[in-house]
Amino acid sequence: MSDSGRGSGQHDELKVIPQHIAIIMDGNGRWARQRGLPRLAGHRAGTENVRRVAEACRDYGVKVLTLYAFSTENWARPRREVRGLLTLLSEVIERELQTLKENNVQLRHLGSLDDLPSDLCSKIRHVVEETKDNDRWVINVALNYGGRSEIVEAVRRIVEAGLSPEQVTEETLSRYLYTSGLPDPDLIIRTAGEMRLSNFLIWQSAYAEYYSTATYWPDFGPEELHQALVAYGQRTRKFGGLPTAVQ
């Protein structure tokens, strides 16, 4: 995650930069199949692409990047694929710690540590602890994450805290989510052409803008990201109201 800037020419046509981008990294398996490779090769290519896209987001001035790495529903995949994917994620988390520290990046884990291998849990806890005071920007890794289970867990914690019904507001519930203290996503990008959320940030994405591309995640690079940012800048975000010009 080297600290290199991007040319100002690309920035000039961007009207606004989202503060928080969330990405559903889809298409690793199909990318591999097109090349006659095993699915795990696609997942490896996908993990290698994370740094490239993360650096581009940082250089554009994005403050928070959330990556959907492994959902609670992904356990239904073949056991060998799941084991291989979790091993890859474990390697990446361990390998990138020093780079995260050098670049003042805070890594946060979204999801449950339950059911994850003990060595992976230890690495996640270690990296989160080591980077918790970094404040340049934030990368969230949604791992063993499900939007519905996140809301259920938040409600359970609210009940355990003894709050009365009158004390429970949207702001209250937001404080009990994994993303507590962070802005909601402004832009959600999904690769591989799918047009669904797949149980991702379903509370936080109420007013997010969506961008879908047919490009598989391993091939999604800075140029594709730029196209998504251009499209985002052309949207009018009304948050349920009317554009200023027609009020």
Task: Report what the structure shows.
The protein has 247 residues and is α/β, with parallel strands linked by helices. The protein has a single domain (13-146, 184-233), classed as 3-Layer(aba) Sandwich (Undecaprenyl pyrophosphate synthetase). The chain is 42% helix and 15% strand. The chain contains eight helices and six strands; from the N terminus they run H-E-H-H-E-H-E-H-E-H-H-E-E-H. The protein has helices at 8-12, 28-34, 39-60, 79-102, 118-131, 147-160, 170-175, 222-233, and strands spanning 20-24, 64-71, 105-110, 137-145, 187-190, 209-212. The chain has a six-stranded parallel beta sheet with strand order 3-4-2-1-5-6, sandwiched between helices. Strand 3, helix 5 (118-131) and strand 4 form a beta-alpha-beta unit. Helix 2 (28-34) crosses helix 3 (39-60), helix 3 (39-60) runs parallel beside helix 4 and helix 4 packs parallel to helix 5 (118-131). The N and C termini lie far apart (44 Å). Residues 4-8 have low confidence and may be disordered.
Summarize the structure.
The chain is an alpha/beta fold and 247 residues long. 42% of the residues lie in helices and 15% in strands.
Could you name the key traits of this structure?
Undecaprenyl pyrophosphate synthetase, 6-stranded parallel β-sheet, 247 residues, alpha/beta, 42% helix
